[in-house]
Amino acid sequence: MPTSTPPERQWWKELVVYQIYPASFLDSDADGLGDLPGIISKLDYIQSVGATAIWLSPIFKSPQHDMGYDVSDYRDIHHPYGTVEDVEALIRGCHERGIKVLLDLVVNHTSHEHEWFKESRSSRTSPKRDWYFWRDPKFDSNGTRQPPNNWASIFGGSAWTWDEQTSQYYLSLFLPEQPDLNWANEEMRRATYADMKFWLDKGADGFRIDSMNLMSKHPDLPDAPITKPGSEFQPGDKYFASGPRMHDYIREMREGVLDKYDCMTVGELGFTKDEESVASYVAKDRHELNMLFTGDIVDMDFGVNHKYERDDFRLSKLKAITNRWQGAMPKFNGWNSVYMDNHDSGRSLSRYGSDLPEYRKDAAKMLAVYLGTLSGTLFLLQGQEIGMANAPESWTIDDYIDVEGLNYYKSQLNKRGVDADMSDVMREMRLKARDNGRLPMQWNTDKNGGFTQASKPWMRINDDFTDWNVAQQEKDDDSVLAFWRQVLKLRQQEKDVFVYGRFDELPKYERSEEVFAYTMTSYDGRVALVLLNFSDKKQSVEVKGCTGWKKLLGKNVETIEGGVELRPYEGVVYAGLGLSFAARA
């Protein structure tokens, strides 16, 4: 039933955020690496897609051990990308087009080359020693030195790194080159807040906060429970995620920095899935963050013990996640982020749709319908709007370059032996490796897909760029790009239905592993019916009470007459009879 109460509108709720991976977007100076001037040159294109904000993956100065998620100076720019002046020009260019700018804020850890860490490791008596986690070693019965606890690094091995100079370990939950900051140190927090203000004063409109809930850890750093008996090191997220002072830090950040600006925040929330814990960060009365990335939408096909274990995608999983968060956020007066792709995952088209030539276009459009009709703030990854896919099966391990995937491959090779069959590992990497979300943008049919004029790009271009690129789709009214523009136009025209609307799944198809059918209802009673076929077979969908409803989006019948036959991987949207929509896409 309609609520008759208009939604509480906020600019950040209505954004369409276009995530840019700077290294892979566009190279302007032929060095093989994308850069800020390249991004500036494509702002008109980004605007034409329908984006109203950009999120820049890390651009700050970094030795690039983890593609910028190891920051060595928060007030300088990674030199191959450009300069601080380039960022200022980018912000101006975006604001002239009504586009907001979000920066990636990586403050759970720094680079080991950051001046803070250099000073911290210089001496046990350094004033900045407590800005990081330093601990004495343990020793086993044989007198062999051991890490302070049994935590496993997120990227494999121990979460502790030995420092010869001061004869202590430092905590590094990701890579040894990424020492964790100690947020319990007030002086460190003040320095971090000053860096945030530096960019907000230059016009940045907010932050995506990386690994946000790892900033508070159990003060005693105790051993993790043994959940992997055969492993030397154990998952320690029970003690290093969402620690006892997490909400204190966010509220302090809010009061000391964020509340002084009209800005938005989206936090990356790992290792936390239950509704009440998630809602505690974004419920309006908590006054902490605007929204979160919980990660469950991108790890639907992860194995129980590891990302690269096999666990095939099932539509029932997507339905459960969609129902859960579309229902939970309104209940807790919070707000959703809507996304399927990011720089840490494989492409949703290849994982949850189909990148086979006969289905690829329709599957990409169907996923666009799904994303474009859900309530929340919508996020797209560069290339998603043209149906970019994962790396092809023909690629070998030598074509992959990301540290996370390579570390896993090496660990499996060490366990199995040099001549072992690694085809199962390669299958999972082809689906889930972070490289897939970072493949260079495919602009045209020129050398390197128009991404760079260099003889060799920093990362191999997907082999399919000659068939899947922006230039060709700009000339095709039936392209994935053209369809995304229709979806986003409709979403903006009908914000009350799609951005702010209420989600309800059709009970008849709740258990279907092929059809996802739901309605979106505005506060004043306007209803849109969304029908999605996630299979490679035709599906007949019976929709009682919808006779005469008119098509808003898609290529199916103009008017419902008792039911709809969906083609393989088809998505379609219909408007309720007698309900006035502003315009059809």
Protein model, in words:
There is one protein chain. This protein has 585 residues and is of the alpha/beta class. The chain has 2 domains: 12-108 and 185-217 and 246-474, Glycosidases (TIM Barrel); 115-171, Oligo-1,6-glucosidase, domain 2 (Alpha-Beta Complex). Helix content is 27%, strand content 15%. The chain contains 17 helices and 22 strands. The protein has helices spanning 22-25, 36-41, 43-49, 84-96, 115-120, 186-201, 237-240, 246-256, 275-282, 315-331, 348-352, 360-372, 403-416, 423-432, 470-474, 480-493, 495-498, and strands at 16-20, 53-56, 60-61, 73-77, 100-105, 134-135, 138-139, 145-146, 160-163, 168-171, 206-209, 264-268, 291-293, 337-338, 377-381, 502-505, 515-521, 527-533, 539-542, 550-553, 563-566, 571-575. The strands form 6 sheets. Strands 13-12-11-5-2-1-15-14 form an 8-stranded parallel β-sheet. α12 (360-372) runs parallel beside α16. The longest helix has 17 residues, at 315-331. It is globular and about 80 Å long.
Assign an overall shape: globular
CATH superfamily of the largest domain: Glycosidases
Tally the helices.
17
Query: What portion of the residues fall into strands of 2 or more residues?
Result: 15-25%
The CATH class of the largest domain is identified as Alpha Beta
Helix content: 25-40%
Residue runs with pLDDT of under 50 for 5 or more positions: none
- Write down the CATH topology of the largest domain: TIM Barrel
The end-to-end distance, rounded to whole angstroms, is 26 Å
Biggest sheet strand line-up: 13-12-11-5-2-1-15-14
**Which radius of gyration do the C-alpha atoms yield?**
24 Å
Pfam families: Alpha-amylase
Domain Glycosyl hydrolase family 13 catalytic: 19-438
Protein name: Glycosyl hydrolase family 13 catalytic domain-containing protein
InterPro entries: GH, GH13_cat_dom, Glyco_hydro_b, O16G_dom_2
